[in-house]
């Protein structure tokens, strides 16, 4: 599953720089997570770094974006292979 940021977000700016996939960005009102880039830190860390640093615990799993650990690993590998701009 990809992660998501809920309306409880206080825009504290600590999650965005922790994301190794650059999946976190500032939305119209709060930070958001691009599910196409979120691997829950699979391939980088043992645990999602954004969840580790969030002071208000507003980053749950996105129930609309279900992925297995193998799918997350494959996404990580695709992202690593993609050319950077």
UniProtKB/TrEMBL annotation:
Keywords: 4Fe-4S, Electron transport, Iron, Iron-sulfur, Metal-binding, Transport. Residues 1-29, 31-64 form the 4Fe-4S ferredoxin-type domain. SUPFAM superfamilies: 4Fe-4S ferredoxins. InterPro entries: 4Fe4S_Fe-S-bd, 4Fe4S_Fe_S_CS, PSI_iron-sulfur_center, YfhL-like. GO terms for cellular component: cytoplasm. Its cofactor is [4Fe-4S] cluster. It comes from the Bacteria. Pfam families: Fer4_7. One of its GO terms (molecular function) is metal ion binding. This is YfhL family 4Fe-4S dicluster ferredoxin. It comes from Undibacterium jejuense. The lineage of its organism: Bacteria, Pseudomonadati, Pseudomonadota, Betaproteobacteria, Burkholderiales.
């Amino acid at each position: 599953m990809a992660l998501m940021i809920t309306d409880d977000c206080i825009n504290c700016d600590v999650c965005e720089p922790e994301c190794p996939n650059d999946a976190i960005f500032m939305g119209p009102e709060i930070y958001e997570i691009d599910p196409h880039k979120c691997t829950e830190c699979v391939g980088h860390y043992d645990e999602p770094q954004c969840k580790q640093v969030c002071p208000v615990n507003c980053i749950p799993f996105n129930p609309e974006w279900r992925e297995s650990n193998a799918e997350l690993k494959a996404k990580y590998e695709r992202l690593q292979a993609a050319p950077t701009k």
